[in-house]
Amino acid sequence: MTTTTHAALRTARRLEILTVGWNGFEAGVAVISGLAAHSIALTGFGLDSGIEVVSAFIVLGRLRADLDDRTDERRERRALRAVGATFFLLAAYLTVDGLDKLMTGSRPDTSPTGVAISVAALIVMPVLALAKGRVARRLDSRLRAVVLADAAESRLCALLALTTLAGLLAYMFAGWWWADPVAGFAVVALALHEGAEAWAGNLDED
Fold first, then answer.
1. Which of 137, 145, 49 is nearest to 90 (CA)?
2. pLDDT tens-digit map of 19-58
3. Would you call 173 exposed, middle or buried from its count of C-beta atoms within 10 A (0-12, 13-18, 19+)?
4. Is 112 exposed, middle or buried (0-12, 13-18, 19+ CB in 10 A)?
5. Please, which residues have CB within 8 angstroms of residue 22's CB and are 6 or more apart in sequence?
6. Spatial distance between the Cα atoms of 105 and 135, rounded to a whole number of angstroms
7. Distances (CA, A) of 69 to 62, 113, 186
8. Burial of 201 (0-12, 13-18, 19+ CB in 10 A)
9. Can you tell me the distance from the alpha carbon of 130 to that of 136, in angstroms, rounded to the nearest whole number?
10. 3-state secondary structure (DSSP) of residue 177
11. Where are the beta strands (DSSP E) in the chain?
12. What average pLDDT does this structure show over 77-85?
């Protein structure tokens, strides 16, 4: 392994550690705020962020293994399928809860904290995605695909924050109570996509 590749690997590890820390914080704030406000979109966003922490740990383990010149692809595949199954369970939960809220006309409460964490995610996640994309170009083709895939996950998280924010603001300023479950369905679509990718073992895909 060249000195440049080794340095890039260490930088990629630091970015993954930062991702774990931020997404863990993001998940905690979003879930607590979502449950308090009875917001399916905000709760789903937080749960998705929690699953992203697990995914980041998988990438972190992959990078650490390469630094130590060891790999365990069977263990990694099992972990990826577990992540995929979790995404599917999240999608099922959000679908049932969203349909129930639409049929009953249940209204969430406003959540300034939820708005704040969504805005923060819209700032942090694109920056992380950009940094991961840059360091990926310094890695060999196999590891480049892993880091680029994780950069795509960070961009998806930013998109999820945008849909969640749209639902929260639509209810806060326009009183559109149905915007919350509709935003939740957007979370469902992204969760299904990410679940299918993880289940198929496509963490290496660009």
1. 49
2. 999 999 999 999 999 999 988 888 988 988 888 888 788 8
3. exposed
4. exposed
5. 124, 128
6. 47
7. 10, 44, 40
8. middle
9. 10
10. coil
11. none
12. 72
pLDDT tens column, 146-198: 788 788 778 888 888 888 898 889 888 988 888 888 888 887 888 788 788 77
CA–CA separation, 95 vs 87, rounded Å?
Answer: 12
Name the amino acid, one letter, at 133: G
What integer pLDDT is reported at residue 205 of this predicted model? Answer: 45
The candidate with the shortest Cα–Cα distance to 55, out of 92, 29, 19, 28, is 19
Written as one letter, the residue type at 52 is E
Amino acid at 156: L
The C-alpha atoms of residue 188 and residue 20 are separated, in whole angstroms, by 22
What the block records as the tokens of 14 is: 């630091």
> pTM score, two decimals?
0.79
By residue count, the chain amounts to 206
In the numeric block, the tokens 């639902």 are attached to 167
What mean pLDDT is predicted for residues 107-131? 92
Average pLDDT value for residue range 123-149: 85
